[in-house]
Amino acid sequence: MEKPLQIVITGASGFVAKNLRKYLSETNVHLISISRKNFKSFKNETKIISNNYDEKSLLPKIKNSDALVHLIGIGKQSTKTDYESINIQLTQKIVNLAKKGKIKKFVYTSGLGVSTNTSIGYFISKFKAEKSIIDSKINYTIFRPSYIVGKDDLFTKYLKKAIKKNKIIIPGSGKYSIQPISIDDVTKLISQSIADEKFKNETLDLVGPEIISFKKYIQLFLQKKKTKLYHVDIEDAYHLAITNSKFDYGVDDLNILVGNFVGDHKKLRNLSKMNFQSVKELLKTGTLL
Ligand SMILES: NC(=O)c1ccc[n+]([C@@H]2O[C@H](COP(=O)([O-])OP(=O)(O)OC[C@H]3O[C@@H](n4cnc5c(N)ncnc54)[C@H](OP(=O)(O)O)[C@@H]3O)[C@@H](O)[C@H]2O)c1
Asked: Fewer Cβ within 10 Å of end Cβ, the chain: N or C?
């Protein structure tokens, strides 16, 4: 049997990380997963708890790994945590760690909508994170995801709670587009990008085969349920997002939705040769409910 790949995962307790770790643990890999808090490990997995990703303690444990998948990121700021320190500086720290540790491959999930022209703070932080990875000269794959759909993603959890309260808030018209991709396809793609040379130094939109309006997505999610959809005027939605941190949507959630971002699915399909799951079909099965 071939020597298993050694793969480091940061932000191990997050939604994408948890699903990726589960998927990879069933393949011939050894995982080294790092989180700030304790978590249950899968088979073939070494668990590391680290609050600040301190180089001195981490470097000896991860050096010479085949890949590092960097899944730390925030999409909402507060006085306690901001894009500069997490999306930019912590990414730079992990890149330095990967470089010193002679890690062969760096995989990062950025955001769909990142570009040199962006004026959104969230995307600017992701742009700078991307740049620090590219500048490091480590072989990289950068994915720019639209909404990643799974049983346990943040928006699915929101919808399930909102169904119980019989009130789903839709900012503005809900006509803006999303291009959702299933978490199962995402885990396969990340895994493929580690091993497959075709993914070397590529920046790819991580988008599914269908473009769909936000409102339509919610309607499909609900299936036959009669949950009340409550349209909030977009100005009011921004006001609430700015003044109330507990509002259903953050300022950058709204920016991303109104930004109407869609991506290049064809490039992803041609490169991966994968058969992608239809998110519409996935919703119809009711497995997310
Ligand atoms: N899910 C999506 O639809 C989507 C779409 C576009 C982009 N992305 C990007 O993909 C990545 C993973 O997304 P996700 O949905 O899995 O996010 P998530 O569930 O929020 O996980 C992100 C993880 O980042 C780590 N983290 C957060 N704040 C931190 C801090 N102050 N210090 C150290 N670590 C911190 C946490 O890991 P621990 O708790 O383990 O420490 C957290 O679980 C993120 O960069 C996100 O921006 C996701």
From this structure: N
Q: Tell me the average pLDDT across 278-282.
A: 97
Which CATH number applies to 5-150+180-209+262-276? 3.40.50.720
The pLDDT value given to residue 3: 85
With H, G, I as helix, E, B as strand and everything else as coil, classify residue 84: helix
In which residue are the tokens 């700021």 written?
77
Q: How many whole angstroms from its chain centre is CA 142?
A: 11
Q: Look at ligand 1, atom 10, and give the residue with the nearest C-alpha.
A: 109
What is the 224 CA–ligand 1 centroid distance (Å)? 32
Separation of CA 147 and ligand 1 centre (Å): 13
- Summarised one tens digit per residue, pLDDT across range 48-106 is 999 999 999 999 999 999 999 999 999 999 999 999 999 999 999 999 999 999 999 99
How much is the pLDDT for 2?
76
d(CA 245, CA 174): 21
Cα(277)–Cα(212) distance, integer angstroms: 14
* Contact indicator for 106, 68 with CB cutoff of 8 Å: yes
Q: What residue owns the CA closest to ligand 1's atom 18?
A: 14
For the chain, what are the domain ranges? Answer: 5-150+180-209+262-276
Q: Is 205 in contact with 265 (CB distance < 8 Å)? A: yes
CB of 29 closer than 8 Å to CB of 5:
yes
Distance from Cα 2 to the centre of ligand 1, integer Å: 32
Query: Within its chain, how far is the Cα of 192 from the centroid?
Result: 16
Residues 122-147: tens digit of each pLDDT: 999 999 999 999 999 999 999 999 99
Instruction: Kindly state the average pLDDT of the residues 140-163.
Output: 98
